[in-house]
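We modelled the chain as a single entity of 57 amino acids. Its sequence is:
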Amino acid sequence: MGQGMRLTVDAAMRARDVSRVRAEEEAPSPPAAPPEPVKPRRGEKRRLAKRRAAARL
């Protein structure tokens, strides 16, 4: 993949659920549990800290 939009697991799961054909009498599935926290990428904490500091100015 190039530098375009990133496809997240959540987006892929939503796209799959929306495109799935359901029977009329079938009840929709309950919402999924919230995702577990993911370890930030290398340098992400520093980048976010710099962004917050710049926003305070």
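As a brief sanity check on the tokenised model: The longest helix spans residues 44-56. The CA atoms of residues 5 and 40 lie 19 Å apart.
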